[in-house]
Amino acid sequence: MEGDVTDAGLPEKLGQFDCLVSFETIEHVAEEERFLANVYNLLKSDGTLVLSTPFGKGRGKPCGSPFHVHQLTADEFRDLFPAYAAKTFYVQRGGLIKPVNGQDEHYPLGIAVCRK
């Protein structure tokens, strides 16, 4: 299947799902709010979203990849999911994935597991 993650009709076309996984997609999408609204609407009432993204300097700041619209800061990333009832955040470096523990260490990737 091929589609546009910002297509407002996507939830109507595809229906709803128990779980959606989006690994390193959002940094490529200029219409981030539309993408997140679609993801939310594509989930069933108790559905789960697993979404990851590389961290960077933040919205509106240049990043090292010509294919990325931007790379969010860790704080910007955590602020993306206010509509979800439960959220757990993880960080990743190489093969290591661990829960966010409040320490000020730098990890290049963030992962959110959110329940609607």
UniProtKB/TrEMBL annotation:
Domain Methyltransferase type stretches: 2-51
BP terms from Gene Ontology: methylation
Pfam families per UniProt: Methyltransf_11
Keywords (A to Z) from UniProt: Methyltransferase, Transferase
InterPro entries: Methyltransf_11 (IPR013216), SAM-dependent_MTases_sf (IPR029063)
A GO molecular-function descriptor: S-adenosylmethionine-dependent methyltransferase activity
Signal sequence bounds: none
SUPFAM superfamilies the UniProt entry points to: S-adenosyl-L-methionine-dependent methyltransferases (SSF53335)
Protein name: Methyltransferase domain-containing protein
Organism: Lentibacillus halodurans
